[in-house]
Amino acid sequence: MNLFHFIAQNHGQVLELTLEHLWLVGISTLLAVLIGIPLGIVIAHWPRWNKPVLAGANVIQTIPSLALFGFLLPVPWLGDRAERLAILALTLYALLPLIRNTYTGIRGVDPAVVEAGRGMGLTDLQLLLKVELPLALSVILSGVRVAVVISVGLATIAAAIGAGGLGELIFRGLAMVNNQLILAGAIPAAVLALSADFGLGWVEKRLRPR
Known about the structure:
Distance between the termini: 52 Å
Number of strands: 0
Structural class: mainly alpha
Radius of gyration: 20 Å
């Protein structure tokens, strides 16, 4: 039985695990956006917070994913639900590209444009919302793109703690030495990552200032 016949015969299970995978990636990316972009804005306007915030995000990136899951397991409330633990871990891993790209995008706005806005009487909040964020949007979206691709890959490892997703097929295939099971999980995960990369890349180019 080849891979395509296997997926066709088990399409319900593959679809269910794919939706679980998308859920983990979607929720964690949303949380990372809600945390990372404001942090990027903060360090862009108050540089004294630059080093501690970026250093913290960099340290998280250096921790192996399975080790991070292990560190979080004893945490009350989180360790009781594998899904919560996986979402938190994926959120932490997605922070660095979002913080860094938001910082880079805002700092890259032409100071003359900002000064022109101030000359028109815009407040700091209006400058942020009407000048800086629109001009930095393509760079910020590039960070979202990187965060999503990272999350799709790391979400496969979340199956090791029982969080579900396509990683279940991969780990089951490794345990059974079954290449069809491994590929049935790995190929859809790769397709999700490539689709997200292509789709967000297209949107990023459309939003790039001309």
